[in-house]
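Re: fe (iii) ion structure - here you go.
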Amino acid sequence: MSTEHDHSHLSDTDLRVRALESLLTEKGLVDPAALDEIVDKYENKVGPRNGAQVVARAWVDPDFKKWLLEDGTAAIDSLGYTGTQGADMVVLENTSTVHNVTVCTLCSCYPWSVLGLPPAWYKSFPYRARLVKEPRAVLQEFGVELADSVEVRVWDSTAELRYLVLPERPAGTEGMTEYQLVDIVTRNSMIGTEKVAMPAGDA
Ligand code: FE
């Protein structure tokens, strides 16, 4: 966003960030162009919408889905959502019999290139500690009701390996276009703590 010429609406935090950036640039510690690129990337190009586009494509294109499940890194890369962290991406398909959910038990490793910034609960100690021990209870708290016959798989992310859940395409969405499907894919459904629901009021 190029609103930098109007400083009158800057908050205290904005001013502090700007001051810090000026100082770091002056000391030669950061390249302002690189910083702008990073901010732009995380503000505008990175975020759950990237992941939603990956999911919607997989839902409408069986060949892409096959590729995505076989080589998540390359398939995601083909849509332009390359991570800058050098981490490999593994895509996990949720089905009527298997429910995958992701966590980072050590810290907060997260697939930034497709989901943006991690939510606070993902980084919280209770989520990290409990998901592995009692995944069904945690999922229930998120509103995910699973039959006993459904196998729950918990995947622990690392700096080298990050996971994206491919949620189940809800019944009743057969007539929706890829573009429309992007809008119903939620961030949590790609972490595994939610199921994608058919949009209310849609016939
Ligand atoms: Fe981590």
